[in-house]
């Protein structure tokens, strides 16, 4: 399989002289299609790389690559990790060759590898790159400076305590006050499946896998960085010269943490980026999720979101309970409604353009607000049970929502007490049977589900289930 040497002769002669100022030309179908640049940790497309030089430049490169081959090779084969050098065929077309050709490299034998195998090999190849070695050394320096950490080891096997066949080789490992730690240096390339597989291994081992990057710029993030960022509670850990020096000075392992901080912007959440150097032992470790962080972004954002939603829910009910039905809304009321509409629209929930526009919506809101208050709201009834009958009579598409509202706001017992004749009880069971049979009579109105789900979290799913029942 020597494409390198079987190019048809150009110009028909046995040899070719290239113009030194012309573009260098790669062979058409190189065995080694990609090389790992050891200095930067980047993967380069061989044909693009070769074609990017003038002939005279590439010849100089060729000499330099050859000279460094035995000491600190500039390029390696991503699939087998063997150093590679630049060769040329008799047509002065270029390609890369392994330093050692023993037929073991899948690129050489053209042995088909699965995409996963290729990724795994490339991942291991990155361990040979200079930035990777540099960051690894900085982690070791930082850990060894801190007496809390023992057994600091580089590239040693971590054998599974559960499965003798399972093992990993983390970049750095150590035993700390909170258990065993595995550190992996994350460089540029995407290996989400590697990230996922590793998390599972260390979770089972009761250890903690910590991803360390060499640098981070929140404004310029690769997808791979985002994979780490969003699986680590929006915190990115960096070890660099400055943090290593600080670890040594304080005799305590420090890391630089970049994280998102959620901030409230009206009824939305906005993020700001922050970065601090913090002691590693002060990070919160989540072994189940294989995460560790300085600021609990997910927790704070969820609490903020819940607070915003709680306020919005309360505002809608306050509006509805305070509104005077059957009167022309004045300017203040119209403005308040417009504000609510816009906030709900921001959540993908459409409210009618005016509160009284849609009698079905009015009935629904009357029902929900009445159930919440335990008294009729929006209709001039005396008892909550009358609201139920009214909805069942005139707005059957909302009676299931009303029934769930009674449970949600814990007013079912109140209605039961008001149900002296037992009429509601009989009615309720007839409605339930009809819904169970999938009949259309009381089927919930799909358009009302988003707002119901918002004001009574968890109820939307139950109503959806009823809605999807179809008569046999
Ligand atoms: Zn190879």
TrEMBL record:
Residue ranges of every copy of the DUF7830 domain listed in the record: 44-110
The organism's place on the tree of life at top rank: Bacteria
Name of the protein described by the UniProt record: Competence protein
Residue ranges annotated for the DUF6035 domain, each copy included: 126-297
Region (Disordered): 1-24
Coiled coil: none
Source lineage: Bacteria, Pseudomonadati, Pseudomonadota, Alphaproteobacteria, Hyphomicrobiales
Organism, as annotated: Nitrobacter winogradskyi (Nitrobacter agilis)
InterPro entries: DUF6035 (IPR046099), DUF7830 (IPR057152)
């Amino acid at each position: 399989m020597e494409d390198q040497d079987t190019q048809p002769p150009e110009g028909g002669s046995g040899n070719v002289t290239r113009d030194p100022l012309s573009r260098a030309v790669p062979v058409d179908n190189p065995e080694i299609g990609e090389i790992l640049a050891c200095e930067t940790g980047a993967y380069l497309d061989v044909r693009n790389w070769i074609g990017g030089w003038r002939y005279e430049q590439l010849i100089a490169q060729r000499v330099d690559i050859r000279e460094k081959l035995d000491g600190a090779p500039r390029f390696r084969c991503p699939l087998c990790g063997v150093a590679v050098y630049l060769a040329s065929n008799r047509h002065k077309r270029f390609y890369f060759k392994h330093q050692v050709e023993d037929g073991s490299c899948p690129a050489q034998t053209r042995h088909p590898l699965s995409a996963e195998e290729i990724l795994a090999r490339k991942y291991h190849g990155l361990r040979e790159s200079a930035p990777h070695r540099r960051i690894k050394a900085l982690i070791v320096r930082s850990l060894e400076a801190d007496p809390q950490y023992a057994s600091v080891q580089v590239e040693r096997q971590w054998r599974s305590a559960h499965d003798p066949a399972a093992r990993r080789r983390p970049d750095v490992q150590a035993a700390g006050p909170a258990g065993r730690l595995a550190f992996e240096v994350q460089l540029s390339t995407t290996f989400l499946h590697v990230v996922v597989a590793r998390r599972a291994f260390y979770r089972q081992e009761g250890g903690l896998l910590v991803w360390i990057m060499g640098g981070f710029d929140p404004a310029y993030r690769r997808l791979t960085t985002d994979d780490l960022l969003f699986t680590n509670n929006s915190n990115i850990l960096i070890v660099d010269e400055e943090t290593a020096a600080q670890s040594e000075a304080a005799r305590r392992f420090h890391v630089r943490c970049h994280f998102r901080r959620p901030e409230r912007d009206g009824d939305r959440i906005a993020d700001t980026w922050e970065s601090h150097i913090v002691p590693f032992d002060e990070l919160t470790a989540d072994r189940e999720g294989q995460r560790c962080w300085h600021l609990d972004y997910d927790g704070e954002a969820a609490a903020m979101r819940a607070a915003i939603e709680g306020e919005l829910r309360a505002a809608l009910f306050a509006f509805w309970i305070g509104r005077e039905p059957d009167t022309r809304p004045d300017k203040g009321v119209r403005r308040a409604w417009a504000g609510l509409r816009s906030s709900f629209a921001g959540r993908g929930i459409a409210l009618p353009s005016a509160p009284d526009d849609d009698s079905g919506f009015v009935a629904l809101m009357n029902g929900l607000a009445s159930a919440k208050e335990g008294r009729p709201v929006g209709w001039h009834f005396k008892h909550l049970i009358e609201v139920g009958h009214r909805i069942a009579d005139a707005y059957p598409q909302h009676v299931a929502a009303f029934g769930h509202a009674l449970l949600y706001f814990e007013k079912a017992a109140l209605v039961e007490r008001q149900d002296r004749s037992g009429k509601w009880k009989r009615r309720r069971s007839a409605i339930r049977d009809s819904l169970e049979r999938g009949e259309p009579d009381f089927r919930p109105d799909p358009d009302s589900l988003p707002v119901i789900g918002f004001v009574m979290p968890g109820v939307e799913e139950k109503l959806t289930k009823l809605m999807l029942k179809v008569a046999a």
